[in-house]
Every structure is written in C-alpha cells, then in structure tokens.
Write a structure and sequence with these properties.
The protein has 19 helices and 8 strands. The N and C termini lie far apart (47 Å).
C-alpha cells in the first residue's frame, strides 16, 4: 500500500508539472506515464492514491517524503490568523503577514495554496480524461467510481481557490500546450462547476462505509453531500444546503458519539476528548461521527511523516522552556505556539491572567473541561525537587509574551515517549465529521429565516456537550459562529467560515484588537500570486483590488 501511495504521488506530481508546458515534450516511456498507467483498474488505483496524498499535502510543511507544497511551517494556520480566534506574535515569519494584514502577491503561502490547488485539479483532470479512454476495468462500476473521486477532489481544490482568491481560471481538462493567456472565471461560475462535480460524486461514490473491504480514509457519497451543503451555503442556496446536510444526517451511517469509546475509554476523560485520542478517528475504533478522515497515523504504512500536519506545534505552548518542565507526551509533546487562543472566547478562568473574561462556554460544557482545554499545568521534572508536582500558573506573561503557558486545546496534543521532539501531529485528522454537518444545517436554516429549526440543529451538538440548549430567540449567526469555535476550533478553516458567512470584517473588528482598525473590505480575499500575473504574458491577469 505504501508503494502504491508513493507511486501515486510521484506520478501525479509528474503529470501535473508537465501537462501544460510544451517545452517539456519528452515522450514518456516509463511505467508511470499516463498512457501506460491509466490502462487498468490498478493503474487508476495508483492515480487515486496520489489524489489522496496530494490532498493531505495541504497540511505539508517542508516536504519530507511527501508532496512538497508550502516550504514553511504551519501553512494551515495562515487560515486561522487574521480572524477572530487567535493571536499571532513572535511566530514563524511565514504567518506574520496574514496576522497583520500585510500580505503581498509575493507571500509564500499566497503562492503555495494556489499551486497546491491547481496541482490537485490537474491531477484530477488527468484521471477524468484518461478514464474516458480506458476500456479495461475490473468491474463495470470502476470507471464512475474513479471519476467520482476525481470530481470530488477537483471540487475540493476549487473550494480553496474561490475562498482565497475569488475569480480564478477554471480548467477542466489536460492542457498540453503552454498557455500564457488565462482569464479569471467569475466565482459564481466556478461555484456552479463545483456543485456539478459534487453532485456527480454524491451519485457515484460508494455509499456504505462499513462494507467489507472498504478502506479507512476513502471517500463516500456522504463526504460529497457534506461538502455540497457547504458550497450551497456559499452560493446562498439555503434550501439545497439544508437538503444536502440532511442527506448525511439521515443516511443511517453516522451519529454523534455520545458515550465513551475506543482507546482510553476507561481512563479519565469524556467523549469529546475521545474523538481526538490517537487511533480513535476511524470507524474501526467505533467512531461513527467521522465522515472523512485524512490518514496521517504515525509509523504506519501510508501514514504521516514529520513534515505533515504541524497543527500541534501551532496550537500547543512552549511549556518546556519553563524551568521545572520537561517534554512529555501527556503535555502534547513539543509545541511551538505559533498561534494562541484569544481571551474573549477561551476565557481566563483558572488562570492568573489579568481581567475576568468568562469566555463562551457554559459551566457544564464538556468541550471546556480540563480534558479538552488544558488550564491546569503542573511541573513535571522530577529532578527539580522543589517544583515537581506543584501547579504552574498561566499568567499574562506566559500567555502573551513568552507563549510558554496558556489554555491549550488538547485535541491537538501529540507526543511519543520514544521521540518527544517529533514535529508532525501524526494523528489521523477528521476532515469532515457529523457535528459540523449539523452546524451547516443550522446555517442553512438561518439563511431561510428559521431560527427555531436552526436552534434544533445546534442543540443536537450542544446536547452531546452537556451545554444548555439555545433558544430560538438567541439563535443568531453570531451564536452559530461561536458554536463553531466551541466545537471545531482548529479543525475548521476559520477564514473560510467567516468569508462564507460574510462576517470576517465584523468579527475581526469585534474581537481582534491587533487589526480591528486595519482590516478593509478587500482583505476578504488574498492577492493573486505575482508569479501567476507575471507569467500570463499574452493577456492581462488582473490583481484583486487593494493589492499592488
């Protein structure tokens, strides 16, 4: 399986890099050329494995053994910075411009997200084109299954592009000739293509995730419906978004996890924390909430490597820099605190930080328990006898100056006793889970002006958390955005959520003191990479307003 994945990555990167450059006109004769590979079901399995690997590389940092995409630490946190939930200071320089709204068209992640998305699109297009030419299938349904996967991943890539850049070139086939005259397709048109791809995927992807032989991490039609609901929301098609979300909820295959399960179920904790315990993300653990899980598992064939998914390093404090602490897996391993949670939502309870900030959680909400947001930190170095076992307080300085201690999301904790300096998070990542589907449903109801049914959808999630039910009169879009923090902080791309709901500027002005006076309407989009504008020499490729 590992060889299949590596072959798929190598092959798809190769074809995507030469597909539109006629100056690289070698006649490929290796077994991994498109004409030699896409000739059987097995060949398309190789291509499919490459699509999954390229998708995982959205989180890739330096490229070790994986698809090199970003080349700096914590690219995904650029989609959290400059929003309403985290502060970014004294961090990796690659995040700074996104936090203080000084992005330029030359910014590394501005270019690498564009390149990542079009690499995935190019690779999906290869499969779609060659699947129409192939006649050698093991099973009659293989053709549409691979096409459905390719359509899903193409839609997923364009999702990122329209959120970040707005109007972007829409490409749906292999470009054999080097092209210097791309134009920007209107966002509304691209969204229609995304919806069409997802409708096809929802029809032809497998239905039953429990079917014998079905592999963990593979797509089902329910993942397509989940993403379709989100894209309908972006279109303002709230009734259709409702129907897509309900298709997942009512499918009979998924449920919110409400009782302890999986690894660690007999240890102190709660069911929300169980979702993020290593090895609890896939269905084989008993998890019926996960709809689509990216496979990053440590030391496993086809799993993650050190350069994959540095989310833990972004969200976890540098406690090990405090005298009296040593690295420990129970404390999350070696975090770097690239981003830190803001007081307004996480609250200051149990800390010595200045100001009494209650946060946004009910007293009984298990998502706010110390199992899920660690506020109590105890010195753990047995060689420091005077401190060992005593509590170390979170202070204004440890939170907002040294970043050594602050309320930390344990969902991203990761450590290995045999190698506590590991960089990657290494846990499989739940990309879509049913709790978010309920919150998408609530957003769809709010869009239709039905606060009562929106509250009902949100309360399905709040009930699992032990939180007080929200009443229809309290059910606003801002309440829903707060609920997404309580449930999905760090899992969702916060920028995408705020852009989709039209609340980015309002929420930044409300909660982000560092940039509330700087943010302008044009900051809703990133600039188009300068390299794209410069290379499109035969026709003007306009930059997004507000950027030089």
């Amino acid at each position: 399986m590992k060889n299949l994945i590596k072959a798929g990555v190598f092959f798809l990167l190769a074809v995507s890099s030469v597909g539109c450059e006629d100056f690289l006109n070698e006649d490929l004769k290796s077994e991994l050329s498109p004409t030699n590979t896409f000739t059987s079901t097995y060949g398309f399995e190789v291509g499919s494995a490459g699509l999954y690997a390229l998708t995982r590389s959205e989180y890739n940092t330096w490229g070790e053994e994986g698809a090199f995409m970003h080349g700096n630490a914590c690219p995904y946190e650029a989609l959290q910075a400059g929003t309403d939930i985290v502060d970014v200071f004294n961090s990796d320089a690659s995040l700074t411009a996104f936090a203080n709204l000084t992005m330029t068209a030359q910014e590394k992640f501005v270019g690498s997200y564009w390149n990542w998305a079009y690499s995935l699109i190019s690779s999906a297009n290869e499969i779609l084109v060659f699947s129409e030419q192939n006649t050698n299938w093991d099973q009659p349904e293989d053709k549409t299954r691979f096409q459905a996967e390719a359509c899903f991943f193409r839609a997923y890539a364009y999702r990122t592009l329209v959120y970040l850049y707005g109007d972007v070139p829409y490409v749906e086939t292999i470009l054999y000739d080097f092209q210097l005259d791309f134009t920007r397709t209107p966002k509304e048109e691209v969204l229609k293509h995304i919806v069409d791809d997802l409708k096809f995927a929802s029809e032809y992807l497998p239905e039953n995730p429990d079917k014998e032989g079905f592999k963990e991490g593979k797509l089902t039609k329910w993942a397509a419906y989940h993403l379709l609901s989100e894209m309908y929301l972006l279109q303002g098609e709230y009734g259709l978004a409702q129907e897509a979300a309900q298709a997942v909820i009512n499918s009979g295959y998924y449920e919110l996890m409400k009782t302890r399960y999986g690894v660690g179920k007999d240890k102190p904790g709660d069911v929300f924390g169980d979702l993020f315990t290593e090895n609890n993300q896939n269905r084989k653990s008993g998890n019926k909430e996960s709809i689509w899980v990216l496979q990053f598992e440590y030391n496993t064939i086809g799993g993650g490597v050190n350069s994959d998914d540095w989310t833990r390093r972004a969200w976890s404090p540098q406690y090990f820099n405090i005298s009296g602490f040593v690295l420990a897996d129970t404390l999350g391993g070696r975090g770097l605190a690239q981003i830190v949670p803001m007081k307004w939502w996480v609250g200051t309870a149990g800390t010595n930080a200045s100001g009494d900030v209650p946060g946004i959680f009910d007293a009984k909400d298990i998502r706010n328990s110390n199992y899920n947001i660690k506020r109590d930190w105890y010195y753990n170095n047995p060689e420091n006898v005077s401190l060992y076992g005593k509590k170390c307080n979170i202070t204004e300085q440890t939170w907002f100056s040294t970043k050594t201690l602050f309320p930390a999301l344990t969902k991203f904790f990761y450590g290995r006793a045999e190698n506590l300096s590991l960089t990657g998070s290494y846990k499989d990542r739940m990309k879509f889970r049913l709790a978010e589907t309920y919150l998408l449903l609530a957003e769809a109801y709010l869009g239709q002006g039905n606060a009562s049914l929106a509250a009902e959808a949100v309360n399905a999630v709040r009930k699992r958390a032990g939180a007080t039910p929200v009443q229809a009169g309290e059910m606003t879009l801002d309440f829903l955005l707060d609920e997404r923090i309580r449930e999905l902080a760090g899992e969702e791309s916060r920028r995408f959520t705020l852009v989709r709901t039209g609340k980015l500027i309002d929420r930044v002005k409300m909660y982000n003191e560092a940039i509330r006076d700087k943010i302008k309407a044009y900051h809703v989009l990133w600039p188009v990479p300068q390299s794209i504008i410069d290379s499109n020499r035969d026709i003007e490729f306009p930059q997004n307003p507000g950027y030089n």
